[in-house]
Amino acid sequence: MDIDWEAYGWERLAEGTGRRRLPGWDATVGLVTGERAVLLYDTGSTLAEGAELRAQIAALTGGRRVTHIALSHPHFDHVLGTAAFAGAEVFGAVGVDELLGRERDREALGADAVRQGVDARDAAEAVDMLVAPRHVVSGEWTLDLGGRQVLLANVGPGHTGHDLALFVPGSREVVFCGDLVEESGEPQAGPDAIPSRWPDALDRLLSLGGEEALYVPGHGAVVDATFVRTQREELARRFDVS
Q1: Three-state DSSP class for residue 114
Q2: Whole-model pTM above 0.70?
Q3: How confident is the model at residue 242 (pLDDT cuts 50, 70, 90)?
Q4: End-to-end CA, the chain
Q5: Is 108 exposed, middle or buried (0-12, 13-18, 19+ CB in 10 A)?
Q6: In 10 A of CB 226, how many CB atoms?
Q7: Residue 2: how many CB atoms within 10 A of its CB?
Q8: Strands 17-21 and 28-33
Q9: CA–CA distance from 180 to each of 54, 67, 142, 153, 205 (Å)?
């Protein structure tokens, strides 16, 4: 079916592939549809945001549900909506399953959400229902969505110790980068960042997508390979790595 992405505030990127920039922290979620399956890349910052996405996706796709979720990295604005998608198979970079399963790390995630402006009750509810990935990606994992294959690639560490990219082949390749790439501001390096490895992670993104791909940052407008390469050099200078 033809999807009217713009009618629901989404941006069409390629056939069966789109994204939405969420309010608040301008975090991107991506959507890829196949004949048999629907994959969502990241889930928002609260259960309410996840439920809104679920309803939008059902409207976009004629009532279909999300069957697969890929989490770009374990920060609150990208993972706390996951429990809104009951029954979905959840994927993450190796180690995310353990991190999101540990009580102290879950509490830290909720505390960070509150510090950034999420209502304390909403954060507590999302943390209490937090879904850790059942499937972990240590290298690359190809998913067949039915007439459309996508590739999950563990390209980190960099922005965190657990960065998972999504590559969508097609006449114009699309690479969902998570927060390894940011367009709307300087890339954020928190206490869980691995700065010495970040430039290498961007090299892997570039090798994955090539020169003509669309690169979708975790925050901000879609960019090209030149932007990613420039940001790679800026990060290398910033962190004094080659």
Answers
A1: helix
A2: yes
A3: confident
A4: 46
A5: middle
A6: 10
A7: 5
A8: antiparallel
A9: 25, 25, 21, 13, 9
Strands 135-137 and 140-144, sheet pairing: unpaired
E strands present in the chain: 11-14, 17-21, 28-33, 38-41, 68-70, 89-93, 135-137, 140-144, 149-154, 164-168, 174-182, 214-219
- Per-residue pLDDT tens for 90-119? 999 999 999 999 999 999 999 999 999 999
146 backbone φψ class: left, alpha, beta (φ>0; ψ -120 to 50)? left
Paired tokens of 239: 């962190």
Which tokens hold the place of 30? Answer: 């991506």
Amino acid at 170: G
Q: What is the pLDDT of residue 1?
A: 60
What's the pLDDT at 233?
A: 98
Query: Average pLDDT over the chain, rounded to whole?
Result: 97
Answer whether 90's CB lies under 8 Å from 152's CB: no
Distance, in Å, from the CA atom of 227 to the CA atom of 171, rounded to the nearest integer, reads: 21
Name the token pair of 193: 């960042």
Give residue 105's Cα distance to chain centre: 19
Residue 241: pLDDT band with limits 50, 70, 90: very high
Q: What would the DSSP string read from start to end of 155-188? A: --SSSSS--EEEEE-SSS-EEEEEEEEESSSSPP
